[in-house]
Amino acid sequence: MSSTELRRTALDATHRALGATMTDFAGWDMPLRYGSEREEHVAVRTRAGLFDLSHMGEITVTGPQAAELLDFALVGNIGSVKPGRARYTMICREDGGILDDLIVYRLGEPEAGSSHYMVVANASNAQVVLDALTERAAGFDAEVRDDRDAYALLAVQGPESPGILASLTDADLDGLKYYAGLPGTVAGVPALIARTGYTGEDGFELFVKPEHAVGLWEALTKAGEGAGLVPCGLSCRDTLRLEAGMPLYGNELSTALTPFDAGLGRVVKFEKEGDFVGRAALTEAAERAASQPPRVLVGLVAEGRRVPRAGYPVVAGGEVIGEVTSGAPSPTLGKPIAMAYVDPAHAAPGTEGVGVDIRGSHEPYEVVALPFYKRQK
């Protein structure tokens, strides 16, 4: 494969047969939308949507000291994760800057005295995370394995998703908690069934072998016919996660920010035993944040129709007080929305006089608490 050639998922031909608009995303040729991104978004909020997320980066960590390695390499307390559960965490540089945000699944133990974890990285950072984990594994009795080609990843999201999936599996979906994963069989295919989601809705992620992806996609599509399930692309995935107030690496998170700068200091577990990469810098960042609060990630809702984009200045009283990180029209609210880092003095919901500089015009925005949307349970 040449360096300029895009990687294709096992479902590539399926997406093209469905008429998807394809786009380059982190070196992968991925479906942006199949028809109307607004209709795909609404389907996930009200019925169900089916996503191909095979571009995500799976890294397997096994061995007697797998937990110790992950506790050293990541900021979270991974050793305390029970088998079958998952944890949201981050991998940081020595200076505390965020390399990526991750989900770590603790899977069944392959053998006595050994642990088995799957680290799922963002597509754009998968190689960076793999390299960092491999480097940090020196001295630990643990193996780090690149499993990006070993899995296809399908997600079914939305209020109808439990019923759709239940018709294809005997797995105990009712017993599968949020941020958990269990092995099972879906439509006759061995799968890791997870429930972590990135849309603000209930839903499931299915990790399967690539050769099983097409058959599983077809089975889910058939099972979802009566429930209004539709195929969904990356475009509506972005507006769904934005409404749910979920950060996206490269927008809300970067190496220029520590977890404390991003308002996610809770993921850093100083109480765990031993050293971890970035501990000293993150201790300073926590102390700095306590005495001099950093900019706060807030929600902005437009009073007009103009859509703010990442990088646009947030203004108040003629001064720049922050910057938009993500913005889009919100199908659920019916108005443009944005996430932005703003100075603490302007972060309280309802703060008056806040606007976004959209190409020289200061458009008025209401400051609101995140998330913009929370599903009724």
How would you describe this protein?
With 377 residues, this protein is an alpha+beta fold. 20% of the residues lie in helices and 33% in strands. The chain contains 8 helices and 20 strands. The strands form 4 sheets. A 6-stranded mixed β-sheet has the order 11-12-13-10-4-14, sandwiched between helices. The protein has a 6-stranded antiparallel beta barrel with strand order 15-18-17-16-19-20. A 5-stranded antiparallel β-sheet has the order 6-7-8-5-9, with helices on one face. A hairpin with a 2-residue loop joins strand 16 and strand 17. The longest helix is centred in the last third of the chain and has 13 residues. The protein is globular and about 60 Å long. It starts with 6 loop residues before the first strand and ends in a 9-residue tail after the last strand. The model has no long low-confidence stretch (mean pLDDT 96).
Architecture blueprint of SSEs:
Layout: E1 7-8, H1 12-17, E2 21-25, E3 28-33, H2 37-46, E4 48-52, E5 57-63, H3 66-73, E6 86-92, E7 98-106, E8 115-121, H4 126-136, E9 143-146, E10 152-157, H5 161-166, E11 181-186, E12 189-194, E13 203-208, H6 213-223, E14 229-231, H7 234-243, H8 279-291, E15 296-302, E16 313-316, E17 319-330, E18 335-342, E19 354-358, E20 361-368
Parallel strand pairs: 1-3, 4-14
Antiparallel strand pairs: 2-3, 4-10, 5-8, 5-9, 6-7, 7-8, 10-13, 11-12, 12-13, 15-18, 15-20, 16-17, 16-19, 17-18, 19-20
